[in-house]
Amino acid sequence: FNQLFKKTLKGKQPLRMLILWKPGSGKTTLMKWIALQCKWTEQKDSFSSYIPVFISLKDLGGNPDSTFRVHNIGNLVSLLFKKENVQVDSFLDDQMKENRLLFLLDGLDEIGDEKIRREVIDWIQKQYIFRNPLIVTSRFSGLNRAEGLAFRDEIPVFEIRDFEIED
Predict the structure, then answer these.
(1) Is residue 58 helix, strand or coil?
(2) Contact, 13 vs 125, CB < 8 A?
(3) How many whole angstroms separate alpha carbon 113 and alpha carbon 119?
(4) Which residues contact 120 (CB under 8 A, 6 or more apart)?
(5) 78 with 92: CB under 8 angstroms?
(6) pLDDT along the chain (167 residues), means of 10
(7) Residue 54 forms beta bridges with which residues?
(8) Average pLDDT for the chain
(9) Which residue among 6, 19, 99, 116 is buried most deeply as judged by most CB within 10 Å?
(10) 3-state secondary structure of 144
């Protein structure tokens, strides 16, 4: 994972990846762990230079007319910060342009309406995020290529292994 992350970031395109697995397998826990690796670790690894931006896709899909249908990802993140009374507009823009943000979009499958989920997939693909990495999680059931619930772009897809006792 770290090797793919480093290799892709050296390229011209942002890293976009999809993490799939079954319910309760630890997708959200993994995303939170990744977020904690940003800035919280003294080790210089793949994540240490990023500012994590965690977005629950369930929240996006729950109110589409005031979220993704009217805002790009940068504006949406600014709104989320403002909701918490944190003003970060110019800071966020600067960090985005310097490729310092790590977008963590969690729970694609939690958007119950398939039409809205399809719109969110399309919205994700249309976002211009400079070279900032973006990771999306979903259960297998959240995607169904036959029904148009799939990413058009070729992005790496990872499946989480079941944990062993020692894990």
Answers:
(1) helix
(2) no
(3) 10
(4) 57, 60, 61, 64, 68, 108, 111
(5) yes
(6) 56 75 86 84 70 92 90 89 78 90 94 93 92 91 78 79 73
(7) 104
(8) 83
(9) 19
(10) strand
